[in-house]
Amino acid sequence: MIVYLHGFRSSPQSNKAQRLKAHMEGRGLGHLFWCEQLPPSPRAAIALAERQIATAATPVTVVGSSLGGYYATHLAEKHRLRAVLVNPAVVAHLSLAEFVGPQTNLYSGETFDFKPEYIDELRAIEVPRISRPQDFLLLAETGDEVLDYRLAVAKYAGCRQVVLEGGDHSFTRWDDYLDTVLEFAELKP
Q: Could you give all domains of the chain from N- to C-terminal order, each with its CATH number?
């Protein structure tokens, strides 16, 4: 099963979530895809994902984009799961500190308050060191205008890495790596 975790201000309607879902459905694997709107609180987002992980009938691979990659790293380490990280946030408690306050979801237009205590919640789930590099796949583009890809390359040293020149934070070549994600998750049609 794939538990997909979207990024900050994003949603299950994001291009990456929708493309992966459609790709899995086209291969008869749609029932093994889960992605829900994550709450703004990191603690609540992790709890929501952990409820899905706990009830999954098949082995779980977490796939996380941006902030979702930060969450996926925590969940993979805590629950001994595989993780695919797409242009992941590496130091979310630092990179998101400037966003405390009112925010707008990029897909639904709904507003939410990103509270100061959420920074502490992010700090509490930081993974200082990857203990099982074989269980992580990093997908990064050097043209990411939001996050410095070099931080991810350093954080996930020893893990399988696909680092592509150019692109942007959306990971422009996502469609080219959908089968790679499924193979890493050991999902076959």
A: 2-184 (3.40.50.1820)
